[in-house]
Amino acid sequence: MKLNFKEDIILENDRVRLEPLTIEHVELLTPIAIDNPTLLKYSPPKFGTVDYLKEYIIRYVKMRTQHLIYAFAIYDKQKSTYAGSTSFMNISQVDERLEIGSTWIGKTFQRTGLNRHCKYLLMQYVFETLQFERLELRTDERNIQSQTAIKAIGGQYEGTLRGHLLMSDGFRRNTVCYSILKDEWKDIKSTIFKTVTE
């Protein structure tokens, strides 16, 4: 099955709802950008102001129309508010693989289990609905917190791309690459995500 960029994909459980990112989310996500100006310090886009957030969302909405990225807004049902964003990117329909990336969640929502619920819904959709064979996750070599989180959900280290991305401050980052394969999902779902599915 192919990822349908024209479909409004909504993924949700009792804890979180992932809905297609739209320009209307600028106002809803502004508190996250203002309160967490360094949230994307390990990612290329500028962040921390309303204008930067608007540029970010406009770019990602446009890339959905170009079939390059499918971005979601994250709504925390427990706190009844929007918490951030995450995306399907580097999508290859032919090779049946994609990357979960451009994930950012406000600091007050971190370490609350919200991200784990998000990852579960995204991974379930990739492996059970799309029936894709491979899922990729990448992060800045300096972002130890992100690397720890990726390993905790079953990501297998594959290597480091040196001088891979140019940051907004002119720094060239090394990107650490992880993956999860479809035949690994059943075990990961029943062990790592056991508390999410109960």
Automatic annotation (TrEMBL):
**The keyword Transferase belongs to this UniProt entry's keyword annotation:** yes
Which InterPro entries does the record match to this protein?
Acyl_CoA_acyltransferase, GNAT_dom
Quote the EC number: 2.-.-.-
Q: Which domain of life is it from?
A: Bacteria
Give residue ranges for domain N-acetyltransferase: 15-155
Q: Which keywords has UniProt assigned to this entry? A: Transferase
Gene Ontology MF terms: transferase activity
Q: What class of enzyme is it?
A: transferase
Q: What is this protein called?
A: GNAT family protein
- UniProt lineage: Bacteria, Pseudomonadati, Bacteroidota, Flavobacteriia, Flavobacteriales
